[in-house]
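Summary of Year 1 activities. Much of the first year was spent building the evaluation harness for sequence design. The harness presents a backbone, in tokenized form, and records the residue chosen at every position. We chose the following record to illustrate the format because it has been used consistently in internal testing since the harness was completed.
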């Protein structure tokens, strides 16, 4: 049966990182380590867990569709109006909403490669044409190439800063140049899922650059630094008219009460996020140094993961990936990138497991 709309026939569904339980079941092992989905290995704030436990008592009622408390809290935190916020079932849902509202048949959207795979999926699902711009040296956004790729029918340009999977950032000057140069018919989407992990002095959040481009949409998520990936809470900050447009396609009650409660409580425990960010920074350095010593080329990471090129002469990425799985370590390989792996920075003992397994696999 071929019942799907023709423009969806070639769409490859999103492939998530392999779950720990699945690998343990397959291999009959315990204590597998997942360094595949850029999650917070420390878990969420205990205060968020407590708030979510309390919220469970109310799950027989639909949640607050307007997310009043979380909206007010985020508006105060970002010093914006509550009407400049849109919410999604994870920022992934917002990417999808954005594509459905602002692109479609007869339009195009620009994204980098390699970059977050869901931009292409969202564009294709909307019926838009994807314009794929390779990253400079395979690791860094090329602002000139992005600008050159724009056509009269282009409606969206997606940039994740830092970028998944390369872990690199767009320096402030380049981002300012891009936002200032974009034509009026185009919406730049700056996805800042990994913003908390950045320490480069030349980075600026697009939230500070909104004056340069009225159409700008900035995406944030509770899935990474806040450790709430499974609750699926993401938000967009944009002009109220863009928020109103997104509202047109938002599914009713798209963010549950447990997620809303967890997100709100997580915002009230910034010390928890700071502890994780500090751990990530020190482990990121330690892991980068150890992998470089083993012969990997490690991209300069501003995120909670590393993008590494395998040492010369080693097996291809899919072979190394499988060999690591057999040792109970789950990382991420990407079909179109035969020499690269993406590795989430985990807890110290998890990173040690990875290093030990890699030494054995590459020996
Ligand atoms: C760049 C980027 N944006 C968005 C997401 C999706 O996050 P969420 O859990 O909020 O849907 C991810 C998840 O890996 C990501 O890497």
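For this record, the design step produced the sequence shown next.
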């Amino acid at each position: 049966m071929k019942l799907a709309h023709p423009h969806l026939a070639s769409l490859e569904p999103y492939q998530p990182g392999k779950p720990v339980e699945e690998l343990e079941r397959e291999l009959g092992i315990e204590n597998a380590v997942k360094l595949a989905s850029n999650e917070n290995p420390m878990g969420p704030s205990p205060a968020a867990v407590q708030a979510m436990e309390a919220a469970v008592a109310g799950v027989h009622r639909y949640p607050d569709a307007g997310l009043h408390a979380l909206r007010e809290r985020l508006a105060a935190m970002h010093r914006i109006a509550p009407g400049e916020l849109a919410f999604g079932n994870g920022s992934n849902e917002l990417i999808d909403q954005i594509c459905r509202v602002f692109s479609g048949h007869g339009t195009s959207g620009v994204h980098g490669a390699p970059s977050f795979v869901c931009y292409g999926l969202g564009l294709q699902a909307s019926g838009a044409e994807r314009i794929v711009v390779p990253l400079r040296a395979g690791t860094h956004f090329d602002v000139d190439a992005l600008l050159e790729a724009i056509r009269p029918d282009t409606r969206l340009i997606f940039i994740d800063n830092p970028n998944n999977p390369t872990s690199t950032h767009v320096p402030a000057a380049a981002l300012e140049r891009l936002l200032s140069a974009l034509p009026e018919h185009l919406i730049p989407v700056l996805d800042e899922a990994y913003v908390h992990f950045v320490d480069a002095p030349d980075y600026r959040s697009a939230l500070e650059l909104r004056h340069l481009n009225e159409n700008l949409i900035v995406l944030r998520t509770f899935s990474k630094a806040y450790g709430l990936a499974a609750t699926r809470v993401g938000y967009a900050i944009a002009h109220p008219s863009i928020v109103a447009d997104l509202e047109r396609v938002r599914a009713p009650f798209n963010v549950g009460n447990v997620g809303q409660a967890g997100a709100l409580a997580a915002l009230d425990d910034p010390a928890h996020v700071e502890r994780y960010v500090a751990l990530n920074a020190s482990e990121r350095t330690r892991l980068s140094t150890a992998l470089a010593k083993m012969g990997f080329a490690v991209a300069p990471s501003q995120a909670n993961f590393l993008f590494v090129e395998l040492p010369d002469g080693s097996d291809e990425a899919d072979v190394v990936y499988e060999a690591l799985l057999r040792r109970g370590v789950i990382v991420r390989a990407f079909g179109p990138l035969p020499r690269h792996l993406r590795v989430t920075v985990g807890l110290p003992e998890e990173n040690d497991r990875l290093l030990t397994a890699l030494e054995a696999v590459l020996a």
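The domain at 46-267 is CATH 3.40.640.10 (Aspartate Aminotransferase; domain 2). Quantitative recovery figures across the full test set are reported in Table 2.
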